[in-house]
Amino acid sequence: MGGSASGGQSGGNGGTTGDTSCTNGKKDGSETGVDCGGTCPACVNYKINGPKTQNDTKSSCEGGSGYMCTRSMLFSPEFKQAAMDDTNLGDPPFVYGTVGHDADTGGLDNGNTCCQCYQLVFESPRDGVSDVPTPKPMIVQAFNTAAGGGKNFDIYMAAGGYGNFNGCIGGSSPMYSQFPDLGGNYTGGVRATRYSECSTGQKYTQASIATTQCQNYVASQCQMIKASASASNQSTSQISCTEANVPTSLYHTNWNVRAKRVECPVNLTRVTGCKLKSQGLPAADANAKDSATADSSFKTGYTTTTMQDCCRPTCAWPNNVSNAEAPYSLFYTCDKAGAPATQ
Predict the structure, then answer these.
(1) Which residues pair with 306 in a beta bridge?
(2) CB under 8 Å, gap of 24 or more: what pairs does 84-89 form?
(3) What residues does each domain of the chain span?
């Protein structure tokens, strides 16, 4: 389903590449970072100044010039590098992301969700797909509200699906100059489980999604994402769209998950712009990889959905964020070219 939030970015990775090692989420071969350096595109610099706190730029979904940053998108170069830097591992145990999430009062949350971080452990897909591997756990930070209730996490990814708003295409100043058909609001956007090219006998499995026919078709849809104002926005978005539909990392479907509130990793917050003061929460648990290894501190009964609407996010407004640590005190707002507004 689509959600209700954000889009933009800083520091692109140069462009797409045919080298699959440059999109496998690991530091390998001649790479100097995760999927970057050596024979892959140059590594990004995600450590920039804190976000501009006195920023009243109107959201793109209201005809303004404020967008959610693609640097905070699933599988962005910034998030890949930040995960490696936080864990000091070439193959990080977590995938970083941002989510829309409403307060689950009496459950996970005890108040405002803006800029809170959560560890998600994936249990089972909910969209009729079967026999797919459990993807890596995610560490996600809440950037938006009105996102399906307190039991849901609406993951921000390229072509993730529209919700009530859309600043991605159309209107007075869209982020993208061309965008694939997303199938309408709340249909999930470019996802393998929408397409007959990815099914066998009307069933979606790891084998059917892994076929060359399916992956080529998904890639053709993702390549329709064009951003004439920003080569980095275009590259990041195409890669996010493609990688989230690979059967071994099939985040672009709806999942049942276990969830736990955790302290935000430092470099994750350098990508997003928002860091809360310490709440005495545990760090993410690298040993919790699936339902069999997640202990009782993880709560059950949670779900994921997917979205991208390119609006300025809820948590980019100072009045919506509490207990923040300056200067990283709210989510970055990006311009159309993907540059974050900084102090």
Answers:
(1) 155
(2) 84/27, 84/33, 84/34, 85/267, 86/265, 86/266, 86/267, 86/268, 87/286
(3) 20-329
Exposed e or buried b per residue across 140-178, where buried means at least 16 C-beta atoms within 10 angstroms of its C-beta: bbbbbbebbebbbbbbbbbbbbbbebbbbbeeeebbbee
* H/E stretch holding 243: helix 231-243
DSSP 271: H
**Sign of the dihedral through C-alpha 77, 280, 109, 262:** positive
91-142: pLDDT as tens digits = 999 999 999 999 999 899 998 999 999 999 999 999 889 999 999 999 999 9
Residue 33 DSSP label: B
Q: Which CATH superfamily is domain 20-329 in?
A: RlpA-like domain (2.40.40.10)
- The distance from CA 128 to its chain's CA centroid, rounded to whole angstroms, is 22
pTM check: above 0.85:
yes
